[in-house]
Specification:
By secondary structure, the protein is α/β, with parallel strands linked by helices. It has five helices and seven strands, in the order βββαβαβααββα.
Length: about 170
Amino acid sequence: MLVDKKEKIRIADIIEESIVDGPGIRIAIFMQGCLHHCYKCHNQGTWDMNGGREMSLKEIEDVFVRNSFTDGLTMTGGDPFYQIEALKDIVVLVKQKYKLDIIVYTGFTFEQILDMAESNNNIKDILNNIDTIIDGLFVNDLRDLTLPYRGSTNQRIIDVKKSLASKSIILKSL
């Protein structure tokens, strides 16, 4: 079940100067809502689809205005793909206006996202405006604390632009 409600952007938290959610100094937006419920998830407080707080796109943009030095945006959660239209609005704004590097974490696989994009133009817009997807559920049995920016070995760091251009999954390092 994907949620597509433009009028509400449910946010669990925003970290304005993160150095652990991707390379450089990043703004990390933790979207509220996740139905994956990964065993031993470190963000269980983001699962409730009605939790967190509501923010407008303007309030989110104000974070970028205050932090003009930032290197990029990381969308995490929860799972940002449970608020597709909000995710689209944020990444399009940030990519087009601020030209920042964008990473999106999701429990869905890249293949699942591509399948959903076939019938959802918002997902196509998301993919065309982000640089990296870190995909896959967190699997506690595959947990590896040595992995950069991932919790388990099944999760992949995918170069979205190269993958779309080549029509195959292209992995990258961050």
